[in-house]
Amino acid sequence: MEQENRKLGDIAFFLTDEQDTQALAQQLAPLLLADDPEHPGLPQGGHIHLRGDLGAGKTCFARALLRACGVTGRIKSPSYALLESYKVSNLYLYHLDFYRFSDPREWIDAGFRDLLQKQGVVLIEWPEQAGGLLPPPDLDIALDYAGTGRQARLTAYSNKGQSWLNRLVLPQSGSPPPGLSADAS
Ligand SMILES: Nc1ncnc2c1ncn2[C@@H]1O[C@H](COP(=O)(O)OP(=O)(O)O)[C@@H](O)[C@H]1O
Ligand SMILES: [Mg+2]
């Protein structure tokens, strides 16, 4: 896979419950919004891919992140509309869900390619449905069922994503149930 070549660091940890998932998003939000001290001058925002089975927590994470970025009002899941857009002062935020795509080229026809060139926050659920046509994200988040919680694996594909990982403080409650290794993949 092309993305594998660009893979930088990755970390894995356990998210006990929905609050943990939301806390992770709330931690990442200011990193996306801030001027990055390690890369001054880079525009704020960034691309995050969210992978995992139905119900793994992709939308839950995206909602919490959008909320923490200042989005007010209802945050709908884009499972049907494919795209929900928001604007907070000068920042554009896009939440996409490719679950219903059957032909990877559909996303080009749907005009999403332009959107991906824009600066802003871009969150994509089911990026694998685009069949490798998407550019690598700054950060890939994979959520897997693990007991009653979720195993999270975060992989950076850009320096920006890596600097987010470097500044992340892992959840305190992040110990997996017995028999589940935090590093199992
Ligand atoms: N770390 C977690 N442990 C257990 N349940 C979680 C966790 N994070 C989220 N959830 C729950 O799992 C469900 C995730 O739903 P949703 O975010 O719509 O999934 P997806 O978008 O991946 O299909 C929600 O009911 C949410 O409360
Ligand atoms: Mg979803």
Summarize the structure in words.
The chain is α/β, with parallel strands linked by helices. Helix 2 packs across helix 3 (58-68). It is built from 6 helices and 7 strands, in the order αβαβαββααβββα. It has a single domain, classed as P-loop containing nucleotide triphosphate hydrolases (Rossmann fold), CATH 3.40.50.300. It is globular. A hairpin with a 2-residue loop joins strand 6 (139-146) and strand 7. The chain has helices spanning 2-6, 18-33, 58-68, 106-109, 112-117, 159-167; strands at 10-15, 46-51, 83-88, 91-97, 121-125, 139-146, 149-156. The model is unreliable at 1-5 (pLDDT under 50). A 7-stranded mixed β-sheet has the order 1-7-6-2-5-4-3. 28% of the residues lie in helices and 25% in strands.
Can you summarize this structure?
With 185 residues, this protein is an alpha/beta fold. It contains six helices and seven strands; from the N terminus they run αβαβαββααβββα.
